[in-house]
Amino acid sequence: MLRHRTGERNNLETDSLEELNKSRLNEHEQSKSYKKKTLKKFIIVLCFVGFILYGVLPVCFILSPWLRGHVIFLTYISWPPFLNLTAPEKFGLKCVRNFYIESEPGINLGVWHILPKSRWDVCQREGFNWEKEFDDQRPVILYLHGNSGSRGGSHRVELYRVMSESKVDAHVVVFDYRGYGDSTLIDPTIAGVVQDAKVMYNWLKQKVDRSRIFIWGHSLGTGVTVRLTERLSLENDNPMGIVLESAFDSLWKVGYHHPISSLHRFLPYFERFFVEPVRQEDPNFDSEEKVGRITAPMLILHAEDDLVVPFALGKNLFNRARKERPSYLSPIEMIKYSSELGYGHKYICRDPGLADVIFKFIIEQKSLI
Question: Which residues are catalytic?
Answer without folding.
Answer: 219, 306, 345
